[in-house]
Amino acid sequence: MELVAEDLAAFAAFAQHRNFTRAAAELHVSQPALHTRIRKLESRLGARLYLKHGRQLQLTEAGERLAAFANETKDRAADFLGSLDAAPPRPLVLMAGSGAYLYLLADPIRRFLAKRHELRLLTGDASRTLDAVRDGTVDVGVTALGIPPDDLDCELIGQFPQTLITRADHRLADRRSVRLKDLQDESLVVPPKGRPHRDQLERSLLDQGIRWSVAVEAEGWELLVQFVRLGIGPAVVNGSVRTTAAVRRIPVKDLPPVRYYVVTRADRGDRVGELKGMLV
Protein backbone atom coordinates (compact mmCIF):
# COMPACT_ATOMS: atom_id res chain seq x y z
CA MET A 1 0.00 0.00 0.00
CA GLU A 2 1.22 3.48 -0.87
CA LEU A 3 0.80 6.50 1.39
CA VAL A 4 1.45 9.75 -0.44
CA ALA A 5 2.58 12.97 1.21
CA GLU A 6 -0.75 14.67 0.46
CA ASP A 7 -2.65 11.94 2.36
CA LEU A 8 -0.42 12.32 5.41
CA ALA A 9 -0.62 16.12 5.35
CA ALA A 10 -4.40 15.99 5.03
CA PHE A 11 -4.81 13.57 7.92
CA ALA A 12 -2.35 15.49 10.12
CA ALA A 13 -4.43 18.65 9.65
CA PHE A 14 -7.68 16.76 10.35
CA ALA A 15 -6.22 15.09 13.45
CA GLN A 16 -5.09 18.45 14.80
CA HIS A 17 -8.47 20.19 14.40
CA ARG A 18 -10.84 17.18 14.65
CA ASN A 19 -13.00 19.30 12.39
CA PHE A 20 -13.38 18.96 8.63
CA THR A 21 -14.23 22.62 8.02
CA ARG A 22 -11.20 24.06 9.86
CA ALA A 23 -8.82 21.42 8.46
CA ALA A 24 -10.07 22.05 4.91
CA ALA A 25 -9.52 25.80 5.34
CA GLU A 26 -5.94 25.19 6.51
CA LEU A 27 -5.28 22.95 3.53
CA HIS A 28 -7.04 25.32 1.08
CA VAL A 29 -9.36 22.57 -0.18
CA SER A 30 -13.12 22.14 0.03
CA GLN A 31 -14.67 20.35 2.99
CA PRO A 32 -16.23 17.63 0.78
CA ALA A 33 -12.87 17.02 -0.94
CA LEU A 34 -11.15 16.52 2.41
CA HIS A 35 -13.94 14.26 3.66
CA THR A 36 -13.59 12.12 0.51
CA ARG A 37 -9.80 11.89 0.90
CA ILE A 38 -10.10 10.70 4.53
CA ARG A 39 -12.74 8.12 3.58
CA LYS A 40 -10.51 6.79 0.78
CA LEU A 41 -7.60 6.66 3.20
CA GLU A 42 -9.68 4.56 5.60
CA SER A 43 -10.63 2.23 2.76
CA ARG A 44 -7.03 1.75 1.70
CA LEU A 45 -5.89 1.14 5.29
CA GLY A 46 -8.83 -1.12 6.09
CA ALA A 47 -9.42 0.64 9.40
CA ARG A 48 -11.56 3.39 10.85
CA LEU A 49 -9.53 6.46 11.65
CA TYR A 50 -12.12 8.48 13.57
CA LEU A 51 -15.52 8.09 15.20
CA LYS A 52 -18.28 10.59 15.77
CA HIS A 53 -19.56 11.00 19.32
CA GLY A 54 -22.40 13.47 19.31
CA ARG A 55 -21.02 16.58 17.69
CA GLN A 56 -17.40 15.65 18.39
CA LEU A 57 -14.97 13.67 16.26
CA GLN A 58 -12.51 11.39 18.04
CA LEU A 59 -9.57 9.48 16.60
CA THR A 60 -9.51 5.72 16.86
CA GLU A 61 -6.37 3.89 17.95
CA ALA A 62 -5.44 3.48 14.30
CA GLY A 63 -6.14 7.19 13.76
CA GLU A 64 -3.90 8.17 16.67
CA ARG A 65 -1.08 6.03 15.32
CA LEU A 66 -1.48 7.43 11.80
CA ALA A 67 -1.54 11.01 13.15
CA ALA A 68 1.69 10.38 15.08
CA PHE A 69 3.30 8.92 11.95
CA ALA A 70 2.09 11.83 9.80
CA ASN A 71 3.43 14.42 12.25
CA GLU A 72 6.76 12.61 12.60
CA THR A 73 7.10 12.47 8.84
CA LYS A 74 6.29 16.18 8.55
CA ASP A 75 8.85 17.09 11.22
CA ARG A 76 11.56 14.95 9.61
CA ALA A 77 10.87 16.54 6.23
CA ALA A 78 11.10 20.02 7.77
CA ASP A 79 14.38 19.15 9.50
CA PHE A 80 15.80 17.78 6.26
CA LEU A 81 14.81 20.84 4.23
CA GLY A 82 16.16 23.08 6.97
CA SER A 83 19.51 21.29 6.83
CA LEU A 84 19.64 21.92 3.09
CA ASP A 85 18.96 25.61 3.60
CA ALA A 86 21.70 25.78 6.24
CA ALA A 87 24.28 24.00 4.08
CA PRO A 88 26.90 26.42 2.77
CA PRO A 89 26.80 27.02 -0.99
CA ARG A 90 29.61 25.51 -3.02
CA PRO A 91 32.51 27.87 -3.74
CA LEU A 92 32.37 29.91 -6.92
CA VAL A 93 34.79 28.65 -9.56
CA LEU A 94 36.87 31.13 -11.57
CA MET A 95 39.05 30.17 -14.54
CA ALA A 96 41.57 32.48 -16.20
CA GLY A 97 44.95 32.38 -17.88
CA SER A 98 48.22 33.04 -16.09
CA GLY A 99 48.48 36.54 -17.54
CA ALA A 100 45.06 37.52 -16.24
CA TYR A 101 45.89 36.21 -12.76
CA LEU A 102 49.25 37.97 -12.72
CA TYR A 103 48.24 41.38 -14.04
CA LEU A 104 44.46 41.87 -13.87
CA LEU A 105 42.75 39.83 -11.17
CA ALA A 106 44.83 40.09 -8.00
CA ASP A 107 42.97 43.04 -6.45
CA PRO A 108 39.42 41.83 -7.29
CA ILE A 109 40.23 38.37 -5.92
CA ARG A 110 41.62 39.84 -2.70
CA ARG A 111 38.51 42.00 -2.22
CA PHE A 112 36.22 39.03 -2.86
CA LEU A 113 38.06 36.79 -0.40
CA ALA A 114 38.18 39.58 2.20
CA LYS A 115 34.39 39.27 2.40
CA ARG A 116 34.88 35.66 3.52
CA HIS A 117 33.54 34.26 0.26
CA GLU A 118 34.93 30.96 -0.96
CA LEU A 119 36.54 30.93 -4.39
CA ARG A 120 38.15 28.09 -6.32
CA LEU A 121 40.70 29.12 -8.95
CA LEU A 122 41.52 27.20 -12.12
CA THR A 123 43.84 28.07 -15.00
CA GLY A 124 43.09 27.62 -18.67
CA ASP A 125 43.51 29.20 -22.08
CA ALA A 126 40.66 30.87 -23.96
CA SER A 127 39.29 27.71 -25.56
CA ARG A 128 39.32 25.71 -22.34
CA THR A 129 37.79 28.60 -20.39
CA LEU A 130 34.88 29.01 -22.80
CA ASP A 131 34.18 25.27 -22.79
CA ALA A 132 34.24 25.14 -18.99
CA VAL A 133 31.81 28.06 -18.68
CA ARG A 134 29.49 26.45 -21.22
CA ASP A 135 29.35 23.07 -19.46
CA GLY A 136 28.93 24.63 -16.01
CA THR A 137 32.27 23.43 -14.61
CA VAL A 138 33.25 27.08 -14.14
CA ASP A 139 31.02 29.92 -12.95
CA VAL A 140 33.14 32.81 -14.24
CA GLY A 141 35.86 32.92 -16.88
CA VAL A 142 38.30 35.72 -17.64
CA THR A 143 40.13 35.48 -20.93
CA ALA A 144 41.37 37.39 -23.97
CA LEU A 145 39.05 37.05 -26.95
CA GLY A 146 39.16 38.21 -30.53
CA ILE A 147 35.43 37.86 -31.17
CA PRO A 148 33.22 37.14 -28.13
CA PRO A 149 30.90 34.12 -28.64
CA ASP A 150 27.17 34.77 -29.02
CA ASP A 151 26.06 32.00 -26.66
CA LEU A 152 27.74 33.43 -23.54
CA ASP A 153 27.54 36.72 -21.65
CA CYS A 154 30.83 38.55 -22.30
CA GLU A 155 31.72 41.92 -20.75
CA LEU A 156 34.88 43.80 -21.66
CA ILE A 157 37.10 44.51 -18.63
CA GLY A 158 40.30 45.73 -20.26
CA GLN A 159 41.92 46.54 -23.58
CA PHE A 160 45.69 46.65 -24.02
CA PRO A 161 47.92 47.46 -26.99
CA GLN A 162 50.39 44.86 -28.14
CA THR A 163 53.82 46.10 -27.16
CA LEU A 164 57.40 45.45 -28.19
CA ILE A 165 59.69 45.10 -25.18
CA THR A 166 63.45 45.46 -25.56
CA ARG A 167 66.57 46.24 -23.57
CA ALA A 168 67.74 49.84 -23.58
CA ASP A 169 70.64 48.99 -25.90
CA HIS A 170 68.46 47.54 -28.68
CA ARG A 171 68.29 49.39 -32.01
CA LEU A 172 64.55 50.09 -31.57
CA ALA A 173 64.69 51.09 -27.90
CA ASP A 174 64.32 54.83 -28.52
CA ARG A 175 61.34 54.57 -30.86
CA ARG A 176 57.98 55.89 -29.64
CA SER A 177 56.16 53.27 -31.69
CA VAL A 178 57.01 50.56 -34.20
CA ARG A 179 55.34 48.63 -36.98
CA LEU A 180 55.79 44.98 -37.88
CA LYS A 181 58.07 45.91 -40.79
CA ASP A 182 60.53 47.27 -38.20
CA LEU A 183 60.99 43.68 -36.96
CA GLN A 184 62.45 42.50 -40.27
CA ASP A 185 65.21 39.93 -39.61
CA GLU A 186 64.77 40.17 -35.84
CA SER A 187 65.32 37.17 -33.57
CA LEU A 188 62.37 37.22 -31.17
CA VAL A 189 61.56 35.74 -27.80
CA VAL A 190 58.16 34.08 -28.29
CA PRO A 191 55.75 31.68 -26.57
CA PRO A 192 55.78 28.04 -27.73
CA LYS A 193 53.97 27.06 -30.91
CA GLY A 194 50.27 26.51 -30.47
CA ARG A 195 49.83 29.32 -27.95
CA PRO A 196 47.24 31.88 -29.13
CA HIS A 197 49.63 34.84 -28.83
CA ARG A 198 52.35 33.05 -30.82
CA ASP A 199 49.90 31.95 -33.53
CA GLN A 200 48.44 35.44 -33.94
CA LEU A 201 51.89 37.06 -34.11
CA GLU A 202 53.15 34.53 -36.65
CA ARG A 203 50.11 35.07 -38.89
CA SER A 204 50.54 38.85 -38.77
CA LEU A 205 54.25 38.66 -39.62
CA LEU A 206 53.54 36.19 -42.43
CA ASP A 207 50.80 38.40 -43.89
CA GLN A 208 53.31 41.25 -44.24
CA GLY A 209 56.11 39.06 -45.51
CA ILE A 210 58.34 39.80 -42.51
CA ARG A 211 61.37 37.54 -42.08
CA TRP A 212 62.13 36.69 -38.46
CA SER A 213 63.53 33.88 -36.33
CA VAL A 214 63.05 32.40 -32.88
CA ALA A 215 65.62 33.45 -30.29
CA VAL A 216 64.04 31.26 -27.60
CA GLU A 217 60.60 29.92 -26.72
CA ALA A 218 59.42 30.97 -23.27
CA GLU A 219 56.49 29.50 -21.36
CA GLY A 220 54.74 32.29 -19.45
CA TRP A 221 55.02 36.06 -19.56
CA GLU A 222 57.44 36.40 -16.64
CA LEU A 223 60.02 34.09 -18.21
CA LEU A 224 59.60 35.83 -21.54
CA VAL A 225 60.33 39.21 -19.89
CA GLN A 226 63.34 37.70 -18.12
CA PHE A 227 64.85 36.53 -21.42
CA VAL A 228 64.40 40.05 -22.84
CA ARG A 229 66.18 41.50 -19.79
CA LEU A 230 69.06 39.06 -20.36
CA GLY A 231 69.49 40.36 -23.91
CA ILE A 232 68.34 37.18 -25.68
CA GLY A 233 66.12 39.29 -27.94
CA PRO A 234 63.05 41.54 -28.04
CA ALA A 235 59.49 40.25 -27.66
CA VAL A 236 55.97 41.30 -28.52
CA VAL A 237 53.74 41.05 -25.46
CA ASN A 238 50.28 41.86 -24.26
CA GLY A 239 50.32 45.47 -23.00
CA SER A 240 49.08 44.40 -19.56
CA VAL A 241 52.34 42.53 -18.89
CA ARG A 242 54.44 44.24 -16.23
CA THR A 243 58.13 44.83 -16.83
CA THR A 244 61.03 46.49 -15.00
CA ALA A 245 62.81 49.78 -15.57
CA ALA A 246 65.51 47.88 -17.48
CA VAL A 247 63.03 47.07 -20.25
CA ARG A 248 61.65 49.56 -22.78
CA ARG A 249 58.01 49.32 -23.89
CA ILE A 250 57.08 50.38 -27.43
CA PRO A 251 53.53 50.10 -28.85
CA VAL A 252 53.19 48.09 -32.07
CA LYS A 253 50.90 50.17 -34.28
CA ASP A 254 49.67 47.54 -36.73
CA LEU A 255 48.69 44.77 -34.31
CA PRO A 256 45.17 44.67 -32.84
CA PRO A 257 44.72 45.38 -29.12
CA VAL A 258 44.23 42.49 -26.69
CA ARG A 259 40.75 42.56 -25.17
CA TYR A 260 39.95 40.76 -21.91
CA TYR A 261 36.39 39.70 -21.12
CA VAL A 262 34.51 38.35 -18.13
CA VAL A 263 32.55 35.37 -19.46
CA THR A 264 29.51 33.82 -17.75
CA ARG A 265 26.40 31.85 -18.60
CA ALA A 266 23.12 33.76 -18.55
CA ASP A 267 21.59 31.33 -16.04
CA ARG A 268 24.35 32.01 -13.47
CA GLY A 269 23.47 35.69 -13.11
CA ASP A 270 22.40 35.74 -9.44
CA ARG A 271 25.16 33.40 -8.27
CA VAL A 272 28.05 35.26 -9.92
CA GLY A 273 26.76 38.82 -9.58
CA GLU A 274 29.02 40.03 -6.76
CA LEU A 275 32.24 38.53 -8.16
CA LYS A 276 31.42 39.76 -11.66
CA GLY A 277 30.77 43.24 -10.30
CA MET A 278 34.25 43.34 -8.79
CA LEU A 279 35.85 42.23 -12.05
CA VAL A 280 34.05 44.51 -14.48
Largest pleated sheet: 5 strands, mixed
Helix content: 40-55%
The dominant shape is rod-shaped
The Cα radius of gyration reads 34 Å
Highest-level CATH class of the largest domain: Alpha Beta
The overall pLDDT, averaged over residues, is 90
Q: Which strand-content bin applies to the residues?
A: 15-25%
Taken in chain order, the helices and strands follow as HHHEEHEHHEHEEEEHEHEEEH
What is the straight-line distance between the termini? 58 Å
Helix vs. strand class: alpha/beta
Count of the separate structural domains: 3
CATH superfamily of the largest domain: Periplasmic binding protein-like II
Q: Give the CATH architecture of the largest domain.
A: 3-Layer(aba) Sandwich
What oligomeric state is this?
Answer: single chain
* Total of helices: 10
What is the CATH topology of the largest domain? D-Maltodextrin-Binding Protein, domain 2
Number of DSSP strands? 12
What does this entry look like structurally?
- This protein has 280 residues and is of the alpha/beta class.
- The chain folds into three domains: 5-86, Orthogonal Bundle (Arc Repressor Mutant, subunit A); 92-156 and 261-279, Periplasmic binding protein-like II (D-Maltodextrin-Binding Protein, domain 2); 162-256, Periplasmic binding protein-like II (D-Maltodextrin-Binding Protein, domain 2), CATH 3.40.190.
- Helices cover 42% and strands 23% of the residues.
- The protein has ten helices and twelve strands.
- The strands form four sheets. Strands 4-3-5-12-6 form a five-stranded mixed β-sheet, with helices on both faces. It has a three-stranded antiparallel β-sheet with strand order 10-7-11, with helices on one face.
- Helix 1 (5-17) crosses helix 2, helix 1 crosses helix 4 and helix 2 crosses helix 3 (31-45).
- It is rod-shaped, with a radius of gyration of 34 Å.
